[in-house]
From TrEMBL, chains A, B:
InterPro entries: CdaR-like_regulators, CdaR_GGDEF, GAF-like_dom_sf, PucR_C-HTH_dom, PucR_C-HTH_sf. Belongs to the CdaR family. Keywords: Coiled coil. The keyword Coiled coil applies. Residues 129-156 form a coiled coil. Pfam families: GGDEF_2, HTH_30. The keyword Coiled coil applies. Residues 167-294 form the CdaR GGDEF-like domain. This is PucR family transcriptional regulator. Residues 348-405 form the PucR C-terminal helix-turn-helix domain. It comes from the Bacteria.
Length: 412, 412
DNA sequence: ATACATTTTGGGGATTTTCACAAATGATCA
DNA sequence: TGATCATTTGTGAAAATCCCCAAAATGTAT
C-alpha cells in the first residue's frame, strides 16, 4: 500500500456514522469524529476495543472537559489547529487516554472537526496516516452540510434571544413555544452572564468563544449572542446547589482560558441574579448592564464581584455620587489629610485607603504598602490626629471608606 | 434697733446702684445685687473690703460659672429659689467665697434677683437680716421696671431671630443693622444649636432654660427662642480653637444640668456647621432640623452625634431607605440569618449587629451581649456559614451594617 | 425517654498584635 | 551647617487574640 493507492473514501454516504465505520474498517482501529467544539458527530461500532476516554466521549456525546483541558495543556489541540497533518498523541493514563492519532478536518483555513483513531493493538503506519488524511478530506463536505444547517438554526436562536433580552416577548406561553421550537429544554431557573471584552469581538474571537462555551461541561448554556464587545449568555442554573459560586467559578475559568489559550486579557464578567420567570430575562440583562457600569467605574474595588447582590455598598454609588455632586459636603478628615499630603508630600490618604481596604488589618496593609508594620502604626496614629479620626468607630470608618471611594470618582 | 424700726429703704432712687450703696451703708457691709440669671445689676462702692468671688463677679458683670455651680451643688441657690428668707452662706475658700448672706427678690411666686451681703468683719445680726428682707422688698419695683424693659427688648430679639431662621432677611447690610440695633456684636462665625425636649416647653421650663443659658460662661449666646418642644439658639464660635468639640461639650453640659437641676430628661441636642455668612442662618437651621430628623429615627446609633458632618453614613439613610423601598432587594445573608433565628429562636442577627456596632471587637461585643467570648466566636462562625459571609471583607461588613440598620427602619 | 445535634462555657497554649523605646534616616528652617 | 522635627525601621516584652479541645448545658426528634 502506498499513498498513491486508490482513495477508498471516494464514496458518498448518508450519515457520518457510515463514514466512521468505513474508516475504522480501512485502518483497523476504532474511529471517532468530532466537530470543532469536540462534540461527538460519529463513531465506529465494528470494533469493540476502546479506552475510557472514548467511552466517556460516546456516553456524553462530547469529549470530557478534563480531556480537552489536558490536550490543550499538553499541546495536541493547539497543534491540530495549526497543521493538516495527522498528530500522534501519546498515552495519558491519568485521563484514560491510550495511544491514538488525530487529524483535523479543514475547510480552507478553518477547522471543522477532528478524527480520532485509537491505536489499541498496533501503531498506525505511515501509509495509514496518509489514508487518514484522505479520510479527513472526504468527511469535510459532510461536515460543511451540518455546519450550514447549524448556522441557520443559529440565526433563529439569535433572533429569539434578542427578543428575550429586550423584553419583546411578554407572553409566557409564547416564550415556551419558542424554546420548544428551538429544541431547548426551558430551564426552571436561569441567569444571564455577560463578558465584556476590551475591544469589539472579531469573528475569529467569536469562534474561540463558541468553542469554549460548547466544550465547557460545567454549565448548561441555553443561548448566547455577541453585541459589540459583549458576550451575552443565557444559562440554566437548575442543577446547581450553590448557583452563585458555580457561576462565579465558571466565569473565572472562562476568563482564564480566554487568556491562556488565546491571549485575550482584561475580560470583565458579570452575571445576573437567578430568575424563574422568562419574562424577566430583560430585567436580568439590565441588571448585568448596571453591574458592568459600576465595575467599569471601580475596576479595582469590584474585581472579585460579579453580581448585583455581591456589589455591597457599590450598589449605592450612583446615588451617593449624585448626592455628593449636588450638596457642598466635604469630608473634614479627608480634607485635612489631603492638605497634609500636599504640604509634606506624604501619602496619608493612600495609606488610609489601603488600610481600610484591608479591613483595618495592619499586617496585610503594611505588606500591600511595602512598609514596616510599625511604620503603618505610626502613620495611622498621625492620620487619627490630623484627621481627628477614631478608628474604633465603625461609622467613622465606613464614612471614610465611602468618601474615599466617592472622591476618586467624583469626576465621572 | 428692732424690726419695727422705720424702713430706711422707703425712698426712691433713679438707679439700682444707689440702692446698693444705701443698703451697704445701713448694714455696713459690701452689697451686690444680681438678676435671676446671676447677672450683676448693681454693687456698692463705699466699702472696699471684698472677696475674690465678688471681684470676679464685678469684673465679668456676672457671677462666675464655677461659683454658680458650687452654690447649686451645695444647695444655696435651690434654697433661695424656695424661700423669701435670708440665707447664710458659709465660707468656701476653694471658689474664693467668704461668709455672706443672700436673699432672693420676689414678685409673687417668681424670683427676680438676689441681694448678696458680704460678712467681711462681723456677722450680720438678726435685725440686720430683717433689714435685708426689707431691702429686698424695696428693690423689687426697680427690678420689675428693668424686667419689663428687658421683655420688650426680648420681643424684638425674637422677631429678628425668627426672620433670620426663616431666611426672611436676605440683605447682609440689613442684618448687620439689626444686630447693632439690638446691641449684639455680630460674630465672625456662628452656629445654630437646637435642643429638642420630650414635650412642649412650658413657661416654667423656659425660665430654667433662660437661666442656664444666661449663667453659662462657656459659650456666647447671641439669640435664642423656643418653638414648641425645641429650644433654638444662635451662638458665636469666634473664640473657639476646636469649635465642634466645644459645642459638643456645651450641649452635653446643658443637657446634664437640665437633668440634674430640674429633672428634665431625654433632651436631644444637635448643632449646625460653622457659618460665616448671616444669610445662611436659615440653612444652618435646616441642617439642624434634618440632623434631628435622623436622630429621631436612629436615637441609639446617633446618640453621640450632634452635627451633620459627624452623622457619617446616617447622612445617606433617607436616600437609602427610599432606594430600598422602591427596589425589591433583599440582603441574602440577613435573610438566611433571620430564617435561622426564626426556626431555632436564636439571636444571630442581634449578635451580628452588636458585633458590628463594636467594630468587630469580640471582647467588647461579648460583654455587651453578656456571653462568653468563645460563645461569640462560635456564633460568628455559624453566622459566617449560614449567611455566607466573609468577615474579612470590609465591603460585605459595611453592607451588612447598612442593611441591618436600614431594615430596622424600613417601616418608618 | 433516649439519642443526637447544637450551643455555651472554660482552660490553656500558640500566635499575633500592641506598645514603648531606641536608633537611623530624611526633611526643614533659620 | 547644625539643630530640630518628622518619619522609618528594628527589637523585645506585655497584652490580646486566636485556636483547639473538652465538658456541660440545652434543645430536638423519634
Amino acid at each position: 500500500m502506498s499513498s498513491k493507492l486508490h482513495d477508498p473514501f471516494k464514496t458518498s454516504f448518508d450519515s457520518l456514522d457510515e463514514y466512521a465505520d468505513l474508516i475504522s474498517q480501512v485502518l483497523k482501529c476504532p474511529i471517532t469524529i468530532e466537530d470543532a467544539n469536540h462534540r461527538l458527530l460519529a463513531y465506529s461500532t465494528h470494533d469493540e476495543r476502546t479506552d475510557p476516554a472514548r467511552i466517556s466521549t460516546i456516553i456524553g456525546r462530547r469529549v470530557p472537559e478534563k480531556v480537552i483541558n489536558q490536550l490543550w495543556k499538553e499541546g495536541t489541540i493547539p497543534t491540530l489547529l495549526k497543521t493538516k497533518e495527522p498528530i500522534r498523541v501519546k498515552n495519558m493514563e491519568e485521563i484514560g487516554l491510550s495511544h491514538r492519532v488525530a487529524i483535523s478536518i479543514w475547510k480552507q483555513d478553518e477547522v471543522l472537526g477532528f478524527i480520532w483513531a485509537l491505536e489499541i493493538d498496533q501503531s498506525l503506519k505511515e501509509e495509514d496516516l496518509a489514508l487518514l488524511k484522505k479520510a479527513a478530506d472526504a468527511v469535510k463536505n459532510k461536515l460543511l452540510q451540518l455546519q450550514t444547517r447549524k448556522n441557520k438554526k443559529e440565526e433563529r436562536f439569535q433572533e429569539f434571544f434578542w427578543k428575550l433580552l429586550t423584553g419583546h416577548l411578554k407572553d409566557q406561553e409564547e416564550i415556551l413555544e419558542h424554546f420548544h421550537a428551538l429544541q431547548i429544554n426551558p430551564p426552571a431557573t436561569f441567569a444571564i452572564l455577560v463578558f465584556q471584552f476590551k475591544k469589539n469581538i472579531s469573528s475569529k474571537e467569536e469562534q474561540w468563544i463558541s468553542y469554549l462555551l460548547q466544550t465547557n461541561q460545567r454549565i448548561k448554556i441555553l443561548l448566547y449572542t455577541i453585541d459589540c464587545n459583549q458576550l451575552i449568555v443565557l444559562v440554566s442554573t437548575d442543577t446547581f446547589q450553590n448557583p452563585f459560586s458555580e457561576l462565579e467559578q465558571f466565569v473565572q475559568v472562562f476568563v482564564e482560558k480566554m487568556n491562556e489559550r488565546y491571549g485575550i486579557k482584561d475580560i470583565i464578567s458579570v452575571f445576573s441574579s437567578i430568575y424563574e420567570d422568562y419574562q424577566l430575562i430583560g430585567k436580568a440583562y439590565e441588571e448585568t448592564q448596571s453591574v458592568l457600569a459600576i465595575k467599569n467605574k471601580f475596576p479595582y474595588e469590584t474585581k472579585h464581584i460579579y453580581n448585583y447582590h455581591k456589589l455591597g455598598i457599590y450598589q449605592f454609588f450612583d446615588l451617593l455620587l449624585e448626592k455628593r455632586k449636588v450638596e457642598p459636603y466635604e469630608n473634614y478628615s479627608l480634607k485635612k489629610l489631603h492638605e497634609y499630603d500636599q504640604k509634606h508630600n506624604s501619602h496619608l490618604v493612600k495609606t488610609l485607603e489601603v488600610y481600610l481596604n484591608n479591613d483595618a488589618n495592619i499586617n496585610d496593609a503594611a505588606k500591600e504598602l511595602n512598609v514596616h508594620a510599625n511604620t503603618l502604626t505610626y502613620r495611622l496614629k498621625r492620620i487619627a490626629e490630623i484627621g481627628e479620626i477614631n478608628f474604633k468607630d465603625p461609622n467613622q470608618k465606613m464614612m471614610l471608606y465611602l468618601d474615599l471611594k466617592l472622591e476618586k470618582y467624583k469626576g465621572i
